[in-house]
Specification:
306 residues; mainly alpha; globular; 69% helix
Length: 306
């Protein structure tokens, strides 16, 4: 149980580090002077010292929504596959539960954007709803497909099964679902080509449009939720699609898992540098590819057994 709690705390602590690492890597690749990888912690500390100012048009929803955006994601952290062998884990939580909790967090974020009574907030919320409606079915299908290949519908148990016995006979299905999930990782976390988390141009904003009116503690909670959401998706990808290093010693396994997270973050930064942001009405084409690959994974598994 101690290792279980330590793993969750460790993932929460390194969550801002991963996003700062992505930003610093992008700046290096663009031949700019990189920011410190600890900038995320500095920003969080700065926001905590700022005054909470909200719009006069806002209701009590703006005061409670940041906590409700963060809470479901914290709960999901307890349902992730174990990081090391012998650690406690929750074995019965399936794809629907994890997707539902992530969607619940997104719902409160959209509600927060609408409550600001600004044109940008409503625009960002409608765009987020549009994207989420396409992401959620693909996410359920992808995790369900991987769980079938692992022999258990529980995500935690699936991660353990994959680490102990990787299904090489289902490599084609595994590859299809991996491509689908990585597209979802980019989309759900508002990364390029779906959204640009660093822009404040009103024509392209999605996530940033919903939180323009926030500052202080409320914005700090939203930024923390964003970093935790990224670490959730990166951890699921590392546990389900790169299930190696699980059987090492405790410290070695933790170190190996963190390295996998940073490799995923580096790949995200590399893709963002070499990819242009899509127009809003081109995004369904990309997410449609994720749904197609998820279906291909299921069909290949059931029909061809590959």
């Amino acid at each position: 149980m101690i290792i279980y709690i330590f793993g969750i705390v460790l993932l929460i602590l390194i969550a801002p580090l991963l996003l700062s690492f992505i930003k610093a890597t992008k700046m290096v690749l663009l031949y700019k002077r990189p920011i410190s990888i600890f900038q995320g912690y500095r920003n969080f500390n700065k926001l905590l010292n700022k005054e909470n100012i909200i719009s006069r048009e806002s209701s009590a929803i703006t005061k409670y929504a940041p906590f409700l955006v963060l809470s479901p994601l914290i709960i999901v952290m307890f349902f992730l596959p174990p990081l090391v062998h012998g650690s406690y884990y929750v074995s019965f939580v399936d794809a629907f539960t994890i997707t539902g909790l992530v969607s619940l967090s997104t719902f409160f974020l959209m509600l927060l954007g609408l409550d600001s009574a600004s044109a940008f907030g409503g625009m960002g919320s409608s765009r987020e709803a549009f994207i989420s409606a396409l992401v959620e079915p693909a996410m359920v299908l992808t995790i369900f497909s991987v769980s079938l290949m692992a022999g258990n519908l529980g995500v935690g148990q699936a991660g353990v099964n994959l680490a102990e016995h990787f299904p090489q006979e289902h490599m084609a299905s595994f590859l299809f679902s991996g491509i689908s999930f990585f597209i979802l990782l980019m989309a759900e976390n508002g990364r390029i080509p779906v959204d640009n988390p660093e822009t404040h141009l009103e024509l392209t904003m999605v996530h940033e449009a919903m939180i323009l009116d926030l500052t202080g503690l409320y914005l700090a909670l939203i930024e923390m939720a964003s970093s935790i959401k990224f670490v959730i998706f990166a951890s699921l990808f590392a546990s389900l699609f790169i299930p190696f290093g699980y059987g090492f010693g405790v410290l070695t396994a933790f170190l190996f898992f963190i390295i996998k997270l940073f490799i995923i973050a580096f790949v995200v930064a590399l893709l963002e540098v070499h990819t242009a942001k899509l127009r809003l009405f081109k995004i369904p084409n990309l997410l449609g590819i994720a749904i197609v690959f998820a279906f291909l994974s299921l069909i290949t598994f059931y029909v061809l057994g590959a």
